[in-house]
Amino acid sequence: MKTPHPRLLLAIVPLLFITGSLPAQQDAKAIEATMGRMRDALRNTMVQLQTAQAENAASQAKLVEAEARITELNARITSLIKQADTDKANAARVAKEQDARIGTQATELAALTSNLEKWKTGYKQAATVANDTEARRVKAAAKVIVLERRVAEQQVKNQELHKLGLEILTRYEKFGLGTAIVRREPFTGIARVKFETLIQDYSDKLADGRIKPEDAQKSASSTSSPPASATAPAAPSEKPAAKSSAQKGES
């Protein structure tokens, strides 16, 4: 059951007060006029009541709509808060991954820098070794030139000594028995055989001690030990041997 509106009560109370105070001797016309006024007042009150009820219903609808809007906004705020928390967590995760990636890249960069420094050091060492090698090569080439000159000189001397030795051997080879008799030199068969053996030995030694072109090239290309100095002294030793054999033959 609905409770009467306060405005309706305020309108009815004066009417009741007026009705009770009417004198009994008023005529029916006055009563009818009064009742008309009461009906009009009641009608107006009912219109006001309906208007108030409509306004109340509209207010209730707006309140419900506002509450629904508030609920929707609260849900949206809650969703936004959750999304913000999720985004914050994702941002923290991405930042952590980025920091880890930056750390890895920094480590790789440090390793690359270290390797680059090592490569620079190795390159400098290789350049130093290459320069030293080139210097040694130039020095060795200069030594080869000097050795080639020495070999050429020794070869000329060797040719001269070999020629001289052959001349001496040819001379004593042609030295026969008649020559020995003319020169009054004893020249028996045994002595001749011995002398021919000595001539053959000295011929072999001269052939072995002679510098050959291929030996000269090998000697010039070798820088570890000067072969010309080892070969050259062999030639001077032949001349004393030839002289010794000549002295023996003349004796």
TrEMBL record:
Domain of life assignment: Bacteria
Annotated coiled-coil segments of the chain: 49-83
Region entry Disordered, spans: 209-251
Signal sequence range: 1-26
Keywords for this protein: Coiled coil, Signal
Bias (Low complexity) ranges: 218-251
Name the UniProt record assigns to this protein: OmpH family outer membrane protein
